[in-house]
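user: At home tonight, take the chain set out below, taking as long as you need, and be ready to discuss the fold:
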Amino acid sequence: MCTVPYTSLDTHITEDRRTVAPNARTPRTRWIEAGLEALAEGGPDAVRVEALAAQLGVTKGGFYGYFDGRPALLAEMLDEWELRCTRSILDQVESEDGDPAEKIRRAGELTFSDDLHRVDLAVREWARHDPSVATRLRRIDNARMEFLRAMFGSFIADPDEVEARSTLTFALAIGRHFIAADHPGRTTRDAVRLAGEALLRRRL
């Protein structure tokens, strides 16, 4: 994703700091949104204060009114990603009606929508170079897998089949954009949908 060495959340801050009151027209959430977009486009090394400020049309001073340096922004970006892609989605799915298969479908639709999926893939690449990000990703993926196991386990008795279906469902959700093969008479989206529905059947 990037050729520049990845920066850990623990990296020492070398950028000049200025204490300036936050610009009301540039709320904290806009910095986080801009950071997530930069992450999706170019990895963590693309998340630079100067570049984000230029994109937002503001000075760096507004940034330091909200964040105690770049590592703080990176940490809050990961917090926001975790909230959006896991905790909020699982809470929403659990609050909605539907059988377990429908809950799995709904969680997949929300978790791996195109905008979140771009960030998800960028975080996975980042985690390959940063142990602290890898630790967080493992925790989040474990939460996702526990949800799948609980849903499949509600209508499948064999624990091996539960694990297999959970793993395949998760792999399909993450890896579908890497599939380059043709599907005669079908689009890739069609083929992914068919694979997903096969995994959700009560008997394969």
